[in-house]
Each structure stands twice: as C-alpha cells, then as structure tokens.
Design a protein that fits this description.
The complex is a heterodimer of chains A (about 110) and B (about 110). Helices cover about 0% and strands about 55% of the residues of chain A. Chain A has no helices and eleven strands. Chain A starts with a strand and ends with a strand. Chain B is mainly beta. Classes of the chains: A mainly beta (about 110), B mainly beta (about 110). Chains A and B meet through strand 5 of A and strand 5 and strand 9 of B.
C-alpha cells in the first residue's frame, strides 16, 4: 500500500464548477499536511498547508480528518487556470522535514 | 531570479555514460533534496542532505551518488546511466530542524537515457 494515495483522475469539470479531491495516508504518526500544485512539466509549488481545524484560502478549502487519515481539497468556482495536477503531501517526521508525496490528481477545467 | 536553479534543464545521453546534474540555491537553506518523478509514481526521494558534507540515502538511491561541497550546491551523479533512469529530476530545499517542512523546488531536469 502506498503511504499517500490519491485518485489520479483526470477530473474534467466545466468552468465555475466545484470539485473536490481526497487523499488518504497510511502513517498515523503523520504530523503536517500540504497540497502542492504542479503544472505540466513544471516544478511542484506549495498551494496550501492543511490544518486540523480546516482552512480556507480564497476559492480553496482544505480539510483534515485524522481519525480516518484523509485530507481533502475543495475548489469552488473553478477557473481555466486551475487546470493542473494537485499533489497531496504528508510530513511524518517534523524534525527531519521529510515529505512523502502522493501520485497527484489531475484536474482539467474546460470552458 | 529563481531561488533554486538546476542545470542542465534537458539532457539526452546514452547507456553507460556518466551524467552530473547540478542544483544551486540562494535561499540560504541548510537542507537539500533530489527527487525523481515518473508518470503515475509521483515524486520519489533519491538522496538528501541536512548540511555540508552530510549525505543520506532516500527511497531509491541505487545507481545514483551525490555531493554537497557547499551549502548552496547539491549535485546528483549517475555513474553509468541506464534507460530506466529516464525521468524528470527535481532538486528541492527546506529550512532546518524545528521549522516549517515546506520544500521549494527547482525547475527540473528532463533526462533521457537511450
């Protein structure tokens, strides 16, 4: 079983739609959680951290469920520019700053 | 100017050749990492370094070696390249222990081994 699992997609949605991605992680000792965005053939960039109480950044909302060991990302009012691959990322050992990456979920927003 | 740079950006080579990928950073971070990315497999850690001269193996270190001679530079070598090392390679940096674990990535090197 992979340490961080995501549905690879692609998720094809029209502009303006709301779309949600889930991610599950296997290590219950995981301490920090992130969503990274990766455009085609580009480097991953931090989209947002995920906090226990849930957090929002504009059209993006991240949730964490420690009991079920899953993380979600909700995108409201999708834009064409949101088309990318979204990577779920988990940090198990804070002291080591080591990150484990999911395989990514591809989103395609169509006009 | 980019904070994390990688050279070359693209490289095509033949089986058995020695290849070196370079990474430089101006972020002043202590920690540096090398990953490879293959379709459907996500990012996998090859080697990482927490300080100058500190080297640690990652998930898939076989067939690779690294050198960290200065804080700002971390190089990855393929001593004898093979076709299944064809991949997109990323260098990343992060701050030290007790700080945010966020990693910052370079633009990547696309390596093709024929």
């Amino acid at each position: 079983r992979k340490e961080v699992e995501q549905d690879p997609g692609p998720f094809n949605v029209p502009e303006g739609a709301t779309v949600a991605f889930n991610c599950t992680y296997s290590n219950s000792a995981s301490q920090s959680f992130f969503w990274y965005r990766q455009d085609c053939r580009k480097e991953p960039k931090l989209l947002m951290s995920v906090y226990s109480s849930g957090n929002e950044d504009g059209r993006f909302t991240a949730q964490l469920n420690r009991a079920s060991q899953y993380i979600s990302l909700l995108i409201r009012d999708s834009k064409l520019s949101d088309s990318a691959t979204y990577l779920c990322v988990v940090n198990v050992n804070n002291a080591g700053n080591m990150l484990t990456f999911g395989g990514g979920t591809r989103l395609m927003v169509k006009p | 100017d980019a904070d994390v740079t990688q050279t070359p950006r693209n490289r095509i080579t033949k089986t058995g050749k020695r290849i070196m990928l370079e990474c430089s950073q101006t972020k002043g971070h202590d920690r540096m990492y090398w990953y490879r990315q293959d379709p459907g497999l996500g990012l996998r850690l090859i080697y990482y370094s927490f300080d100058v001269k500190d080297i640690n193996k990652g998930e898939i270190s076989d067939g690779y070696s690294v050198s960290r001679q200065a804080q700002a530079k971390f190089s990855l070598s393929l001593e004898s390249a093979i076709p299944n090392q064809t991949a997109l390679y990323f260098c990343a940096t992060s701050e030290g222990s007790g700080t945010r674990p966020e990693q910052f990535f370079g633009p990547g090197t696309r390596l093709t081994v024929l």
